[in-house]
Specification:
The protein is an alpha/beta fold. The chain is built from eight helices and 15 strands. The mean pLDDT is 96.
Length: 309
């Protein structure tokens, strides 16, 4: 079959490679190159890099609804999207001769939206998965063709969970394309009354609120790793928290630093306490807490202060 593949991040790359081995990917559509890093260097999306390596033409519209000629010319039997980053209007979906499908990283109707992997960890889910759905006008509301699940480990971060979901996504997508090619695709309508949402992470959410429980914050640390990360403020300086453990009990008030020495940094929460294990002070590299407290942290954070400060 002729496939137009639409995707942008690393998560989509294994699926592009797998589809290209089995089908004729006539066009890859991805987001425009973006400036990244301190030097604001213009960088191509990971899917563009892979498409170039595979010799597949690339189209990077600022808005997917503008200038559809390259997609029309690609004559797709199926349009496949994997974390593309833009909502597809009907005039795009209708270009596909057979179907237009999306690979979504949750067990729909749970966690519709742009951050399903992060929200699954943050909300303490014990399982997630991949749903292959037909694209419709409503966000992630289309009927399900293939669905596969996997457990979430207690130490999973969004980074590790994305890596686990990649091969599951490949299997689910190839199965879905086989069904479509053989005219055997049977879709199951989602139960829309049970839908929940995984909205994109806001900058305000990056700040740790110690009026939450330690378990809630530990999940948030893992959910937001490696992007965008979470942080607190110590004496006016941003301190990112890359890893933490839960301590079950403390009598201190939320935000109070109950320990700050070479053995660790422990901060009281609404219930329990959060033991920071890997941190990054603004302008510095990430490091383990012992290294931090032997250096810049020694005179910055003290037992008894209250965070944020």
């Amino acid at each position: 079959m002729k496939i137009v593949f639409m995707g942008t991040p690393d998560f989509a790359v294994p699926m592009l490679k797998a589809v290209a081995k089995r089908h004729n990917v006539t066009l890859v559509v991805t987001q425009p190159d973006a400036k990244k890093g301190r030097k604001q260097t213009l960088m191509p999306p990971p899917v563009k890099v892979e498409a170039n390596a595979l010799g597949i033409p690339v189209f990077q519209p600022v808005r997917i609804g503008d200038g559809l000629d390259p997609i029309v010319a690609a004559k797709p039997d199926v349009i496949v999207t994997v974390a593309y980053g833009q909502f597809l209007p009907e005039k795009v979906l209708s270009i596909a001769k057979k179907d237009a499908i999306n690979v979504h990283a949750s067990l729909l109707p749970s966690l519709r939206g742009g951050a399903p992997v992060q929200r699954a960890i943050e909300r303490g889910f014990d399982a997630t998965g991949i749903s292959i759905i037909r694209m419709v006008k409503r966000m992630d509301a289309g009927p399900v063709l293939v669905q596969k699940s996997l457990p979430i480990a207690p130490d999973d971060t969004s980074d590790t969970l994305f890596k686990k979901l990649e091969p599951l996504g490949v299997d689910a997508l190839l199965e879905a394309l086989d069904l479509i090619e053989q005219n055997q695709a049977t879709y199951t309508e989602q139960n829309h009354e049970e839908a929940t949402f995984a909205y994109a992470i806001t900058r305000e959410e990056e700040a740790l609120d110690f009026n939450s429980t330690a378990e809630t914050l530990e999940r948030k640390v893992r959910a937001f790793y490696p992007q965008p990360g979470v942080m607190t403020t110590v004496n006016g300086k941003r301190l990112k928290v890359w890893a933490a453990d839960v301590i079950k009990s403390t009598d201190a008030s939320p935000g109070a630093v109950v320990q700050a020495d070479n053995e660790g940094i422990v901060i009281a929460c609404k219930e329990g306490a959060l033991a920071l294990t890997r941190v990054q002070l603004e302008g510095k590299k990430p490091m383990d807490v012992k290294t931090f407290m032997n250096g810049a942290g020694r005179n910055l954070i003290k037992t008894g202060i209250k965070l944020p400060s």
